[in-house]
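User: I'm curious whether this sequence folds into something compact or stays loose and floppy. Could you predict its structure so I can see for myself?
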Amino acid sequence: MPEGTVTVAGLRAGSVPADTDPEKAGTPGGPVPSGACSDTRREIAFHGERSGRAPLTWGQRAIWHAIRRTAPNDHYFNIGRVLPLADRGRPVTVPEALGALARLTERHESLRTRLLLPPLDGEPAQSLADAGTLSVTMTRAAGLPEAAAEAEALLGRLSATRFDYAAEWPVRAALITVGDRVTHAVLVLCHLAADGHAAEVLVRDLRLLVRRGSAGRPPVSTPLDLARDQHAAAGRRRGAAALAHWEAGYRAAPPTMFPDPCAQPRTPRFWTGRLVSPALARAVGTVAAAHRVSGSTVLLTASAALVAAGEGHRTAAVMPIVGNRTAGALRDLVSTLSQDGLFVLDLADASGPREASGPGETSGPAEPHGPTEPSGPTEAAGLAGTFTDLLPAAYRSALRAYRAAVYDPVEWDALGERLSAEYGTDVHPYCCFNDMRLVERALPEGPRATGAELAEARRRTTFGFPATQDRVACRYCLHVTEEGDALAVSLTADTAYLPPEKIRAHLYAMEELIVASAAGTPPPLTELRTLLAAAGGDRP
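Assistant: Here's the prediction. I'll summarize afterward.
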């Protein structure tokens, strides 16, 4: 599993947020838009073992704060999955599939948990129901090809509206049938109930419930239990230690990565560029193996180095989304556990000691040097070394970020407000990284790709701007997924700070930087700004 990853931040793997009408997107709950005249509804009853109330877990608080910042476009955070059921095994009947959905809801408490909103400003809580009914959309298709297309279309329709967090169950379910057999199940999940890893757990369990009638032992932990643990004394001590890492990191980095607008914002303001590159997939694996780090660390380091170079910073601060599932009791928990980490990288570390650090590394960021740093192009900052020279320090910084990604978002907000008041400017990187792959592929056996082979593979690279958004609570959001044998890297950015041509340049520069490093010619850090200026200029 890539370090610090396992989540899908509002997107199913391989997809990007689509253009939406803000008025339509802002309508919670109610009838889900239907594109099939044969849609019907079936009600299924579920009966769990207990009910209860608890504060939100810290992961739930984190996504709730993001939802509030993004509303009314918070349908962006919905997580969707399609489960084919006609690809193997015996045919599945409608009663079998409906029964499996009921047992899935009974097995995982988060699927029958809704938000309790306070009457005034304050933090909401969660309310677990022991019983209820779930409405399942039923759609008929003429044959298997039509069923597969309808499943994807239905996924889009069910994902297109925001959840009514206090009134609606946090799962929307649908079944597609051909004749009297179920061919596909569709799940759309509220991000308060599940993250990307949890969505995969649900798909696995639903498949087992359909095929075998059982998904095995229930999860060890529950969201209510986790919430009570986090809000107890021991949990709060752990959260305070994590926030100490954040404060040290904030003080070691610039207040923000993108301090000044550089262009008139487009309408819609946020654009997503997407680069799909087989060469990048091979190059990331090659560099990771050569330097004994994960591919996720290679991509995170490239992102940080390019942002710092482009904005004239010596130190980069990036917020990787961390899955927080290293504890065995949390691996099968269906909830949203992911939170932001803080990755701080001083590009001058490429000139320092480069001995490898083992997994026992626990030290914090470098000594803080205040709220500002030397500004201007990185060429003037006295940097030495190449991109790959950054990887040992980046590995250690990434580990620290992952260990300090469990904390109370209310306290995190207070920390940011305190430092912003102290500095007289907003303190927030506004720069995030989300490796949404659940696992990293191993390099294929045999000799590593040559520079010529990688150059040839780059001929298959594609790029486009598939989506726009009116509102995203960040200025630079990088998402990594897979598409066949290629890496798909999407960058959603605020066009006031990164206009479309710069979004394109950042993605092509990342490909060039890592491919050149895999070929044995890692670019010097002093040339990254030039690389950004030239990247992709000869590409379609």
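Summary: The first helix runs from residue 22 to 25. The CA atoms of residues 141 and 149 lie 9 Å apart.
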